[in-house]
């Protein structure tokens, strides 16, 4: 389980400290899925929505906890999956 942190941003690189509300909500949603044991999470978001921010932020948060190991993060175009 990922511990609740009053400030998730404390583990994020300085360049990524400022999120839009929907970005913070999405990161919290992703962390919730991980806390619930999900092994695979698919993020579908439009250009400019912050997919790179999500990956860097979630990776940084999990890395700071030292209890999670990220095996792979893939970013691919949806049509390349089929």
UniProtKB/TrEMBL annotation:
The protein's UniProt keywords, in alphabetical order, are: ATP-binding, Helicase, Hydrolase, Nucleotide-binding
Molecular function via GO: ATP binding; DNA binding; helicase activity; hydrolase activity
Q: Which InterPro entries match?
A: Helicase/UvrB_N, P-loop_NTPase
User: One Pfam family name from the record?
Assistant: ResIII
Q: Where is the Helicase/UvrB N-terminal domain?
A: 19-68
Keyword check for Nucleotide-binding, yes or no: yes
Q: What is the protein name stated in its UniProt record? A: Superfamily II DNA or RNA helicase
Lineage, top ranks: Archaea, Methanobacteriati, Methanobacteriota, Methanomada group, Methanococci
């Amino acid at each position: 389980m990922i511990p609740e942190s009053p400030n998730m941003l404390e583990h994020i690189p300085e360049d990524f400290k400022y999120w839009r509300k929907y970005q913070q909500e999405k990161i919290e949603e992703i962390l919730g899925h991980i806390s619930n044991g999900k092994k695979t999470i698919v993020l579908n978001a439009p250009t400019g929505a912050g997919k790179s921010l999500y990956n860097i932020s979630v990776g940084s948060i999990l890395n700071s906890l030292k209890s999670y190991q990220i095996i792979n993060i893939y970013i691919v175009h949806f049509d390349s999956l089929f």
